[in-house]
């Protein structure tokens, strides 16, 4: 036996008609209760458990409209199907205006029972839809309250924005940190808050792309003076948020206070620059001592001293550039090569030399962790060229760096006499340039040599994972 569909209360002072209606509705699976007057019917409804009421109009003491008014006064009244005579159209209209869900005109033959069953079905469906809607709204309210509780426990300030960039809600952390109330934030744009610190064209442009293009904002930095906070630095991060099945899209905007971290980074940079400056000064003292010893030593040893002086000078120039850098330790490779060229010219060539060192480099930054082997590699190759390529004492050495795809190519070229060996790749080894091989391996690079008598020698070194684009981005991967 199937479960009953609903509990129906039929109110009518005609016992015969009541039995007829009861039997018919019970055949459709309903549980049917009977009341023969409005007062007893209302009392039963007040007890609860009635899903639908079918209410006759003409009854003694209290008619249907009066009973309907009492039913509608309940906190959660069941739907009422009003039952009238065929000719009582005006009564039906009055019942509908008074809150009846539907009406049925009865006849003496009982044919209205089909219409009553249909009206009950419609009323039950309407109740189910209303309850489903109320349940969904209650669930949505609970979810929103839970979300708000989660939002309020997050320490970083955050706001939820509509697609028009107005604030739906702000977390307690946001209100507390920036000293604003809920009334001051709700419905306003972020750019209008405070002293318009967030009214930044670049930020506004990025925010306008978050919802329509689903483009998140990652670590957009703003530094400004905030009332009650002083000078602060914030990272702004934004994401598009939406609920499955809901076409409403919003944006979550989080404000991360990085003032202390930023100050630590600045302090570290200042300390690094100071330490680098002192290292550079100490290395220059060593270079000076070597130059002094070179003037006093025997002629066969002078070249060795000068080579040592150039190597240490290259490292000193690196620390000099680090001490002046404001790009998080990244070293401008063109400036670095220029300083190496100057140091080599001073230590190995002198003002009267006919050999020149030129620099041609793209605007790239070098990773400071590998700048020392890079500088020593350049110094070694250029020193070999100065020592062996120009027996006549005149010529040119060119130091160049360029980006080729995902690699960097360092070139040290001269226009000297060129290599005479048939296997040019082995020549650096023969010239005592074992250092070159060591430095290339440290940089995970590869070296190729090309030369011909009278046209000069060119060394090309491909270096992956070494240089970064100007501005201090992540190292380029091969």
Q: How does this model look, in words?
A:
The strands form four sheets. The chain has a five-stranded parallel β-sheet, with helices on both faces. A five-stranded antiparallel β-sheet has the order 7-6-10-9-8, sandwiched between helices. The chain is α/β, with parallel strands linked by helices and 478 residues long. Helix content is 46%, strand content 24%. Mean pLDDT is 82; it is low at 422-432 and 467-478. The chain has helices spanning 15-27, 38-47, 64-72, 89-98, 112-153, 172-178, 182-185, 201-213, 259-296, 299-324, 333-349, 371-388, 427-430, 434-442, and strands spanning 7-11, 31-35, 52-56, 80-85, 102-106, 158-161, 167-170, 217-226, 230-242, 249-257, 331-332, 354-361, 364-366, 394-404, 407-414, 446-452, 456-463, 467-469. The protein has 14 helices and 18 strands. Helix 10 (299-324) runs antiparallel to helix 11 (333-349) and helix 11 (333-349) runs parallel beside helix 12 (371-388). The longest helix has 42 residues, at 112-153. The chain has three domains: 7-134, Response regulator (Rossmann fold), CATH 3.40.50; 154-257, Beta-Lactamase (2-Layer Sandwich), CATH 3.30.450.20; 262-469, 2-Layer Sandwich (Heat Shock Protein 90), CATH 3.30.565. The two termini are 75 Å apart.
In short:
The protein has 478 residues and is α/β, with parallel strands linked by helices. The protein has 3 domains: 7-134, Rossmann fold (3-Layer(aba) Sandwich), CATH 3.40.50.2300; 154-257, PAS domain (Beta-Lactamase, 2-Layer Sandwich), CATH 3.30.450; 262-469, Heat Shock Protein 90, CATH 3.30.565.10. Helices cover 46% and strands 24% of the residues.
């Amino acid at each position: 036996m199937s479960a009953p569909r609903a509990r129906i209360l039929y109110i009518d002072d005609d016992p015969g008609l009541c039995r007829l209606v009861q039997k018919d509705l019970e055949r459709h699976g309903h549980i049917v209760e009977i009341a023969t007057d409005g007062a007893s019917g209302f009392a039963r409804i007040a007890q609860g458990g009635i899903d639908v009421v079918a209410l006759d109009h003409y009854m003694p003491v209290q008619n249907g409209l009066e009973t309907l008014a009492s039913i509608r006064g309940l906190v959660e009244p069941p739907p009422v199907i009003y039952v009238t005579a065929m000719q009582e159209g005006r009564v039906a209209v009055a019942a509908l205006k008074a809150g009846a869900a539907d009406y049925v005109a009865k006849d003496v033959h009982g044919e209205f029972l089909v219409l009553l069953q249909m009206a009950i079905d419609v009323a039950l469906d309407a109740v189910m839809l209303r309850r489903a809607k109320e349940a969904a709204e209650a669930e949505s309210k609970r979810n929103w309250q839970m979300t708000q509780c989660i939002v309020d426990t997050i320490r970083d300030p955050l706001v939820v924005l509509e697609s028009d960039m107005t604030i739906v809600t702000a977390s307690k952390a946001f209100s507390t940190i920036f000293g604003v109330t809920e009334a001051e934030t709700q419905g306003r744009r972020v750019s209008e808050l405070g002293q318009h610190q967030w009214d930044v064209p670049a930020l506004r442009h990025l925010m306008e792309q978050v919802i329509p293009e689903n483009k998140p904002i990652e670590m957009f930095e703003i530094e400004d003076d905030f009332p009650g906070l002083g000078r602060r630095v914030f990272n702004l991060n934004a994401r598009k948020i939406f609920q499955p099945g809901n076409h409403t899209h919003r944006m979550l905007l989080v404000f991360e206070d990085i003032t202390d971290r930023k100050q630590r980074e600045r302090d570290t940079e200042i300390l690094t620059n100071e330490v680098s400056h002192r290292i550079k000064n100490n290395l220059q003292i060593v270079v000076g001592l070597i130059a002094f010893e070179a003037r006093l030593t025997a002629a066969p040893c002078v070249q060795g001293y000068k080579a040592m002086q150039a190597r240490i000078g290259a490292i000193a120039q690196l620390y000099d550039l680090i001490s002046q850098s404001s790009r998080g330790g990244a070293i401008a490779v063109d400036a670095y090569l220029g300083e190496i060229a100057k140091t080599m010219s001073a230590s190995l060539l002198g003002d009267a030399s006919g050999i020149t060192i030129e620099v041609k480099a793209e605007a790239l930054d070098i990773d400071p962790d590998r700048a020392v082997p890079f500088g020593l590699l350049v110094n070694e190759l250029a020193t070999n060229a100065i020592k062996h390529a120009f027996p006549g004492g005149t010529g040119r050495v060119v130091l160049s760096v360029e980006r080729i795809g995902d690699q960097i190519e360092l070139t040290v070229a001269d226009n000297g006499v060129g290599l005479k060996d048939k296997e040019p790749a082995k020549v650096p080894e023969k010239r005592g340039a074992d250092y070159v091989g060591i430095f290339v391996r440290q940089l995970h690079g590869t070296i190729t040599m090309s030369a011909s008598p009278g046209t000069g020698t060119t060394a090309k070194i491909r270096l992956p994972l070494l240089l970064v684009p100007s501005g201090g981005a992540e190292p380029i991967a091969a």
